[in-house]
Amino acid sequence: MPWTTGHAAGFTTAAQPWLPLPPDAKALSVAAQRADPESTLRLTRRLLALRRRSAALRAGAYRELRLGDGLLAYERRSGEERVVVVINFDSRERRISGLPPELRLTLATGPASGGLTLAGVSAAVLSDRSF
Questions:
Q1: H-helix or E-strand containing 41?
Q2: What is the CATH architecture of 60-127?
């Protein structure tokens, strides 16, 4: 990930970096992503913070959930805490059924609504507690 929007993306003061930079290096830089609440950097930081606060995500028992083709879903449980992760690999929006009603949306990588409707190629983390 490029560091800055400046010369050589902040990697070197040399005239040219030893590896080529992508044409969109400025938009992908840490500096640009810090300012964008929907950036990959911000998402990664939110996911890491969630993992730090959740015993279930750090060390909970794993159980695969079969919710349909094109979906990867699993539950992590530690004591009374339960977290479910659902990933929609399909390019189309999917209505997800079969989830326990007490789970609440904690974090999503894209639009998510209702009981749980996930946009195409997106994911959601649901939990039975607030983080």
A1: helix 40-53
A2: Sandwich (2.60)
Residue 128, token pair as written in the block:
């039975």
Run of H or E residues at 81: strand 81-88
Domain boundaries, the chain: 60-127
Residue type (1 letter), 65: L
37-69 residue pLDDT tens = 889 999 999 999 999 999 999 999 999 999 999
> What whole-number distance in Å separates Cα of residue 92 and Cα of residue 70?
10
**Pairwise CA distance, residues 65 & 80, whole Å:** 18
Q: Give me the amino acid identity at 15.
A: A
- pLDDT tens-digit map of 73-105: 999 999 999 999 999 999 999 999 989 888 999
